[in-house]
Specification:
Elements: E1 5-12, H1 18-31, E2 37-44, E3 50-51, H2 56-61, E4 88-91, H3 102-109, H4 119-126, H5 128-137, E5 145-149, H6 150-155, H7 157-165, E6 171-175, E7 185-187, H8 193-201, E8 206-211, E9 215-224, E10 229-230, E11 234-237, H9 245-251, E12 255-257, H10 264-280, E13 285-294, E14 300-306, H11 316-323, H12 328-347
Parallel strand pairs: 1-2, 1-4
Antiparallel strand pairs: 2-3, 5-8, 6-7, 6-8, 9-10, 9-11, 9-13, 11-12, 13-14
């Protein structure tokens, strides 16, 4: 039997999605193929320090904030400076730090393969406002919206409120760079909008305000690279006015339906749009692409894209992939294989250049 690959499983992080990431990583650790992989959990505490000793799952769950290494360029905890690099990294970090290009840039510097999309795709996909602008440039349908920066909000609140007011009511206010519905609010009255924006700006300096529509929530799982596998659509049948964090992870009042009850032509359209949306942001590895199906008109709108979706065995992404013939364990293996393939591709690129002159040496 060939030697097993060591997999550094990254989870936790400094984002508000820290707890969600712990749950995701526990499920991944339990299902990575033990015949091929040795799992090395690497938790990132809420203070940004990498926790590698003992049981990182328990230590992060307990809220431990370990002391950082004395080596200024190492994020590792003190005493762990000689920790060997794993063969590859499995990124289970949700939100800022893990899903916005930051960790991807760091892992590129370490010259190690990692699961998921690269820096550019992650940064673009994390910011809902940027994602919409890229989709619009490709002629893809998005919900009418207004993007606001904190600087613009501070400079002229009334102008911002007026711009958002043109969208009508209700409105959804969303921090541009958060997931799991954290910080999202539905605004039904004009007089409540300013307070909702103030709260959203406590999470992010960029906020998205979207027109509130009467919709069904349709989701699609994408796996691969230039010619990805696209699952059959699933549907989240929402119990409250929208799919809140509490409902997703705590109350569980909403339910899912896979496949979604859609006419065949509409299901095919959703899958094609998902593939185009994935390619438009240079997607790679995996993504869950979310849609709104407007009930009165039957129109389809892209909502957002999540490059590191919830990944427990009962999360929508793995369930949609399982329904499309890729069970959870095989899905994890495919993600690792995609990481290795992308890394090998990058290793073939020419990175050096020499001009043949000594002009750069100085006098």
């Amino acid at each position: 039997m060939s030697q097993r690959l060591s997999v550094g499983l990254l989870f936790g992080g400094e984002s508000p999605e820290h707890e969600v990431s712990i749950v995701t990583a526990r499920a991944i650790a339990q299902h990575l193929d033990p015949a091929r992989f040795v799992v090395r959990p690497m938790g990132i505490a809420r203070n940004g320090v990498w926790v590698v000793a003992g049981d990182p799952f328990s230590r992060l769950a307990a809220g431990e904030l370990p002391e950082r290494s004395a080596h200024p360029f190492l994020p590792l905890e003190r005493g762990a400076e000689d920790t060997p690099l794993p063969d590859l990294f499995f990124n289970a970090l949700h939100g800022a730090g893990g899903e916005d290009g930051q960790i991807q840039g760091y892992l590129e510097l370490l010259h190690r393969p990692y699961t998921g999309a690269g820096l550019l795709a992650m940064a673009a996909g994390m910011d809902k406002w940027i994602t919409k602008r890229l989709w619009e440039s490709e002629g893809l349908p998005v919900v009418p919206y207004e993007g606001l920066t904190e600087e613009r909000w501070i400079r002229d609140r009334q102008a911002c409120l007026a711009a958002c007011g043109k969208l009508g009511l209700p409105l959804f206010v969303k921090p541009a760079n958060l997931g799991s519905s954290i910080g999202v609010e539905k605004v039904k009255r004009t007089e409540d909008l300013a307070a909702a924006l103030d709260r959203a700006f406590t999470f992010d300096r960029r906020v998205l305000v979207e027109q509130g529509l009467d919709v069904r929530e349709i989701e699609v799982a994408v796996l691969g690279g230039d010619e990805p596998l696209v699952s059959q659509p699933g549907e989240v049948i929402v119990a409250d006015e929208f799919y809140t964090f509490e409902d997703k992870y705590l109350a569980g009042k909403s339910r899912t339906e896979i496949p979604a009850r859609l006419p065949e032509e509409l299901a095919d359209l959703v899958r094609k749009l998902a593939s185009r949306a994935f390619a438009a942001v240079d997607g790679y590895g995996m993504a869950r692409v979310d849609f709104f199906l407007e009930r009165p008109s039957g129109r389809i709108f892209l909502n957002e894209l999540n490059f590191i979706p919830g990944f427990t065995s009962i999360s929508m992404y793995p369930k949609m992939m399982a329904a499309s013939g890729v069970p959870y364990g095989e899905l994890l293996t495919r993600l690792v294989d995609l990481a290795l393939a992308r890394h090998a591709q990058a290793a073939r690129r020419q990175t050096g250049f020499q001009s043949g002159s000594d002009w750069f040496r100085g006098k």
